TrEMBL record:
The lineage of its organism: Eukaryota, Viridiplantae, Streptophyta, Embryophyta, Tracheophyta. It is found in: Membrane. It is a single-pass membrane protein. InterPro entries: Cyt_P450, Cyt_P450_CS, Cyt_P450_E_grp-I, Cyt_P450_sf. The keyword Acyltransferase does not apply. This is Cytochrome P450. Its cofactor is heme.
Amino acid sequence: MDSLSSSSLSPYYHLFFTAFAFIISGLIFAFSRKSGSKKLNLPPGPPGYPVVGNLFQVARSGKPFFQYVRELIPKYGPIVTLKMGTRTMIIISDADLVYEALNTKGQIFASRPRENPTRTIFSCDKFTVNAALYGAVWRSLRRNMVQNMLSATRLKEFKSARDLAMDKLVDRLKAEAAANGGVVSVLKNARFAVFCILLSMCFGVEMDEKMIEKVDEMMKTVLIVLDPRLDDYLPILSPFFSKQRKRVWEVRNQQIQTLVPLIEKRRRAIENPGSDKTAASFSYLDTLFDVKVEGRKSSPTNAEIVTLCSEFLNGGTDTTATAIEWAVGRMIENPTIQTRLYDEIRETVGDRKVDEKDVEKMPYLNAVVKELLRKHPPTYFSLTHAVTEPAKLAGYDIPTDANVEIFLPGISDDPKLWSNPEKFDPDRFFLGREDADITGVKGAKMIPFGMGRRICPGLNMATVHVHLMLARMVQEFGWSGYPEEGKVDFSEKLEFTVVMKNSLRAKITPRA
Ligand code: HEM
């Protein structure tokens, strides 16, 4: 997911390409020849320049990175190499190869690559579930997150946080519609609702809307500075990026200053039970204060706790909200889907508020959400993998310093695996014509949460959030297009997740 987006490079590209690329290429080429490298049999890929490799071809294409990759597949096959400066990127887009890597050879492909300097700062040198190398730190942090926060029992305990967030969402939509002639932004509101749930699970302290918005703004700023830069791929250029490096530290300090007071507030509430009447009975923070990490004697520092909390908030916010945006787009495009959803909700719950417990009794809703995650996986690349030792895949070498990327739509849009994959058709699941195991245990047909050892630990919680939010939004409002005469534009853009290029606005009508 930390793949390069051409937009993040374009401001630098014009500045640097002509002036520096070839001079620097020559210099580093001379250096690298001295050190001598073993000839590897890497997967095929477009020819590139010495040292810079394909970096500038990607940037100059003007296409989002996922689009660039999509166009490479028919030319070079299901496993492709891109040389991105000093990084070798190997992209896998075929179900069998992905299954072989993440299941059959799962242990070998379960690590993460080295970080760029910005990510090293924000991950506290890989002290997070998602960035940790495959090993003791990862095991400890992941076990803590899964067992103490994301197990089925724990999830149930946070039901009231979800109910509250859903009520807030409905109120916000009503208020926005009232102020804008019935028109609302979909992504922004969905994002806010899911962020409220995660915030309350994470910090266990009450926050007013102003504080929620402050934390949200700060998280967005972090995501912006985490966008890859040219010097991440060509470290020799780093002297030209001192301003950006300074900015990274500013944002990191701002992140710490925003979140540490919340951490301290919770610490005080735990140390003095009963002192804070608004404190929740349990939160992710509580598990972090004294988490035991194999190979470490001390508890995490405040800076490390900031990092771990941010991971929890970031992992589940944009991903879930993105799914909702595409869902509403599809319902507007095909009003029959919306009618069938609404009829199912009414048949199942009558006049009362739809609840997460009702979801399992709604096969059509389940089919819509599954088709949504097939056709619009919120991230097109799983998080970057790396091998723990030199490996082979499809007869090619996979070196330990390569970034291994899994291109998810390559699988879920594959006409060899799906009939009519281009069509958004919940009936493929509802009528049982097709099926897939989204955990990838039985095969990789659609794996929006990845698969294998690094599969998203938030899978269960995320699917509860998507089902519940969609059901509630359809129960409360009728959704139609805005502007009314226009067709929904399903173009995509990369913004951490793959969102609608023109952020979806919809007209809502409260149900009678
Ligand atoms: C619709 C919502 C979500 C989607 C589509 C999604 C997708 C993914 C994907 C594709 C990966 C990478 C798997 C791999 O490396 O092969 C991942 C990892 C991860 N996700 Fe999610 N995710 C979602 C929600 C969440 C939520 C709600 C949380 C927790 C609050 C979360 C936390 C994480 C973490 C910590 C990892 C790293 C796991 C590891 O490296 O061991 N995600 N997710």
